Amino acid sequence: MEKERGLILNQLARSLEEAEIKLEEAYKKEDYDRFNKLKKMITEIQARILEEIK
Question: What CA–CA distances, in Å, run from 38 to 4, 51, 52?
Fold first, then answer.
């Protein structure tokens, strides 16, 4: 169970890193629709991480 939880957290952390890179790219391109979608996605990933570490 702990190994599975660690794998989930690792995947979530990688997803968060990728989303942050894409968020910055969207901002630089002034693609605010994509920026807002990515911001929402990052918030959801952060919430999921918090759930996993409880």
Answer: 26, 20, 21
3-state secondary structure of 33: helix
Separation between Cα atoms, residue 24 and residue 21, nearest integer Å: 5
Q: What does the pLDDT read at residue 34?
A: 97
Q: Which domain holds residue 14?
A: 2-53
pLDDT of 53 higher than 90: no
Count of domains for the chain? 1
Give the tokens for residue 21. Answer: 């890179």
8 A C-beta contact, residue 40 and residue 4 = no
Residue 51 tokens, joined? 């759930």
